[in-house]
Amino acid sequence: MTFNLAEHPGVAVLAAVTLVLAGIGTWYVIRHHLRLILLTVLCGFGFFAGGLVVYRGAQDPVLVGVGIFLLIIFPAIWMRAIGSQPASRPKAPVPPQALGAFELELRPKQPAAAAAPAQKKG
Which of 12, 43, 60, 121 has the least CB density, counted as fewest CB within 10 Å? Predict the structure, then answer.
C-alpha cells in the first residue's frame, strides 16, 4: 500500500503548514534563545565530564578533586549566567497605551496655567 500526497491534497496542505510553523518556531528559538541553549548544553556537558572524572579517577585523589571542582563550577557558572540573562528577568508591565487601551487617569489633570510657570514679559 502506497501513500501519494497528490491524491490527498488536504494531507499535503497540513504537512506544508506544519513544516512552515516548525520553521517559524525554530527561527524564533534560535533568534531569541540560542545563547541560553548553548550555555545550558555546554554547562551540562561540563557537569557530566566532572562526574565522569570522579567515577573514572576513583583511585587517584587528584582526579577526584578535579572532578569535584567541575561538578561545583559548572552549575555555578550556569546559575550565574542564567540569572544575568535578560530573558530570565521579569519584564516591566506593558503600559496601556502600547496595547491600544484607553489611559486611566489616577490623578486629576492640572490646568494648563498651573502646570506651566508664567513667563515674564519684558
Answer: 121
